[in-house]
Amino acid sequence: MTDTAVHQTEDPPAPEPPGWKRPEVRSIALIWLVLTIVGECLVWIPSWLMGPSASTQMDDIKQTMTLFTAMSAPVAAVIWAIMIYSVARWRYTGDEPPEDDAPDFRTNSPVVLLWSILSGVLTLVVFIWGMLKIAAIPAAGGLAALPAGAMPPMVVEVTGNQWVWNFTYPELGNIQSDVLYLPLDRTTLFDVTSADVIHSFWIVEMGVKVDATPGQLTKTDVVPHSIGSFDVRCAELCGLLHAAMETQAKVVTQEEFDAWAQDKGAEVPIEPAAQEEGGA
Amino acid sequence: MRRLNIITAIVFGLIGTIAAHYLATIIFVMPVLEGDAEAPSGLVWLLENRIAFTTMFGWVVGFMIGIGAFSGPVRWVLGKDLTDEEALFLAGKDQGIGRYFRFTTDHKVVGIQYLVITMVLLGVGGTLAMLIRTNLMTPDSAFLGPTTYNTLVGMHGIIMIVATIIMITGPFGNFILPIMIGARDMAFPRLNALSFWLIASVVPVLLSVPFIGGMPTGWTAYNPLADQAPIGMDGFAFTIIVFAISSAVAGANITTTAVKMRTRGMTWTRTPIFVFGVVASVGLAIPAFPTFMAAQVLSGLDRGVGTTFYDASGGGSGWLYANLFWLMGHPEVYVILIPALAALLELTPVFTRRPLFSFKAAVVAISGIVGLSILVWAHHMYISGWAPKLGGPFMLTTEIISIPTGLLFLVFIGTMWRGRIWTRLPMMAVYAMLWNFVIGGITGVYLSDIPADEAMHGSMFVTAHFHYTLMGAALTGTMGALVYWFPKMTGRMFDERLGKWGFWIAQVGFNVTFLGMFMVGFAGQPRRVFNYSEVFATGNFISTMGAYTIGIGMLIFMYVVISSWSRGAIASSNPWKAKTLEWQVPTPVPLENFDVLPIITSDPYGYGRPSPDLAATDQAPKEGASL
Amino acid sequence: MTMTTEVHLHHDDPDTVGSRERFGVALLIVADIAFVFSLVFTYTYLRFLNTDGAWMPEGMVAAAPGETWLVTGAMILGLVVFALGARDLKAGKQPKFRRAAWIALVLSIIALVLQIQQMRNFNFSLGEKGYFAGTYSSSMMTLAGANAFHLTLTAIITLGMANRARLGKYNEPTSWQPRLATYWWLWVTISAVVVGLMTTFLVASPSLPSMGT
Ligand SMILES: [Cu+2]
Known about the structure:
The complex is a heterotrimer of chains A (280), B (627) and C (213). Chain A is α+β, with helices and mostly antiparallel strands. Chain A contains six helices and eleven strands. Chain A has two domains: 19-90 and 115-137; 152-268, Immunoglobulin-like, CATH 2.60.40.420. In chain A, helix 1 runs antiparallel to helix 3 (56-89). The model of chain A is unreliable at 1-17 and 268-280 (pLDDT under 50). Chain B has one domain (104-583): Cytochrome c oxidase-like, subunit I domain (Cytochrome C Oxidase, Chain A, Up-down Bundle), CATH 1.20.210.10. Chain B has helices at residues 6-34, 41-67, 71-78, 84-90, 107-135, 146-166, 171-180, 189-208, 225-228, 232-260, 273-304, 318-352, 359-373, 391-400, 402-416, 425-448, 450-456, 460-490, 496-523, 537-567; one strand spanning 421-422. Chain C has helices at residues 14-49, 65-90, 94-121, 134-166, 176-201. In chain C, helix 4 packs antiparallel against helix 5 (176-201). The radius of gyration of chain C is 22 Å and the shape is elongated. Copper (II) ion binds at residues 160, 163, 199, 234, 236, 238, 242, 245 of chain A. Chain C: The chain crosses the membrane at residues 25-46, 66-85, 97-116, 136-162, 183-204. Chain C: GO terms for molecular function: cytochrome-c oxidase activity. Chain C: Keywords: Membrane, Transmembrane, Transmembrane helix. Chain C: Residues 1-204 form the Heme-copper oxidase subunit III family profile domain.
């Protein structure tokens, strides 16, 4: 390898063109390829770690995670490949600085340009993807469009209290619950607020998250597509028992939901939810 | 003035504390008692906070009087300017070790003072991290309990934020930068000392927070949660206010020095990249931190005077706080990161024996990041609902930052390309930083995109992400910078044989810790929880083991810093054969750095040439700057 | 400058020092601008939000703008006097600057007293003793307090200027020092005018009350 000093006489920007045939370029490309392949083989991990999905927007989120991870692998691999190669082959060990300096080229305009364009393109892809998905991610972009032909949406008023969630169903005679019951495949609109400090209403497996802010109504919505019991947590530090501000979101069929509501309706009105967990 | 030092400062500080407390009690409480016998509880609460603020104010004012910070302004008003002799005394001439304990104006003394206080803060913050991780080792740990846990999380956060903000611009921006640009001191030496002693005065206030009720809010101190908090919160708010003043003063001083005091011939294209990084950092802090200060002033007024800025029932809003906070909060990330990366950019050519790759790209990248950073604050508020329509625009500005950031990566690997990579510890820090910052940067792109942020916001994923940038990149960079400039600052070589063990153990531990945290973040563990569900047990256990590994590594590293400083091998004036000016002056650096100011004819990256024209030499032509 | 023994205290020429100090003071003013901006943002944002309809709760009367403009008027006058004085100094007329500095000092103190008077006259506490009713009153008091803080600093700086002028510290080559003080005067006056315009013309909230809690 010709990694000894190449002395240019005048004018620093004498380019050492990339020279695709240089041995180090080939080796680095090979390392890059291996790292990229390894990375691409692992792209399922984030989505897997995120667990089951209970709504279409969670599907979107998991898809986003997988896509970004897949896009990241080759990018990280460029840096890491050069790191690995450089420390393996260009290393100098000694107590004193090396006598012979390295080549003195100061820039490589085509590379800088290519690098900038590529990162610009990647940024654009990430941005456009985000904008496309915003429609499905209601907290940040307003409410999601209702799926055509679905049942009329149901409103749930969500109130964060230190340190319990309280759910009110205004269309069902204002029944209250500290467990969130949701009918399957039906759009639910959440009107979220807080009675004390800022909380953040988070249904983990549904990808629903919006802050509960005192004095303000924030809105989000979701169409649960899986039956089951899911985690509701608080995603904004809200004081002493923030960690314990958890409950369940139970997605049931419309019939089961109606039955539950009728049961609950008999108990109206209820004092603000107590500490107890579990079903009604 | 001559008798003032840290002892008198503490004495005056204590007197001020007691006096202020006493006066506040008389002034605020007496009228209430005289009125109706029973004061409403709300008013009592206001008075408690008011007295707490006044007492802290008394401490800082007393301390600053005792250290001699006010003698300058008072003498200015009286028209009694410093004589040369007094100026030299202030600069610490012939005072030996004592000059480190007084209001000394010599930038090198201030640099060392900053270095020590930074290490103390990092040590305290790191210890708190160990306690936090110990509590999180098992799902239902009762090691700390919720009150203590929340306070320690907030303390860890704010201590580390303060420490990392000053960790490059304080020690190296003060000690190294003026020499690097061929100046004899900073533009405003007394403001320089002021900026340090303001921090020194307020650190005890900050550290007292856990003992005066603590703070349940994390370092973000979100309102209205902060409005409920005990008077520990006042200590936090007061610290931020003083710290913001200190940063403004330091920022004006360092920026002016770099812009106005570069020696003859040092055009911007011949100015070392580190100078750009430091100026970007402190320059960005100047407009950014006052908004944080304002947020805390309003918080203090709510707590102590009864305004309703953050109280929804009085027309206030937590969204106001969040906006003011993040207007500072995002630039602050770059205030921390950029100078650390710039320090590594500065030393990479030295250890690759190559010119810095595309100096212009580096400058464009730093400027681009700084410019964009003030337009991205609301990406911390995507899911807050304050302005759903702004999600798209803020997503765009945020993601554009990845372009200049990517350029910085190119500058690093371009400088390493075909270099003679001298594998000393500073260069190893470049490798470690690149590894970590790739991860920190990429996870940042995830969070910048609303679909991903929707799931990850407020989770451990975020915690892991910003530790990869602030610790993995910035603190790693600072460790590299410390080893690099250690010979110049202390006159001794850093013992790399043991030091690199500490360094690499900490790096491995770091990656274990935060990969574990990414796992539980993906799985949906919220941030800042003292207990968690059983499903997160494995990831948290891994994290805690990693954290202990960091602890061991850092202890070794700290030991090496102290032992090398006290009895390391004596360093020559330029052990790395570097070309920037600070390596061309003798070690230890004389009081005014240069007897004759150098003239610069090229940039300091002229490696790889047959006859390297040094950035400057001691034999530079005589320059008439002395009268 | 006399040089003695091995002590080398290097002095830069006044022009260099002057340009340096102007730059530094400009940066400190930038920091203060950011602070005032935060307060202006607070005022306008809370007015826009009108959370719970509590920007101006029922019964709240807006402060009469007259007092604000009285304070601001004194500041404008002080600025003009001081700036003209600094110009005279540059032209070598030291006594004129001396007189201007003293007058400006008096004006800054008058403005400060008027400002404190306005704060005492605010009739905002509708509820319990010591509480503010709503964010309009909170913001007004804070903005007035910030201006009082500005004026206190201005008075101290101007006092220094006047006293140092009395001692003959200022002449043509050092006229940049009063010019620095002019920058400060200019900024605090601008800030008072901007805040005055805002609090005069943007009072009632344009928004309906958002939901109550
Ligand atoms: Cu909560």
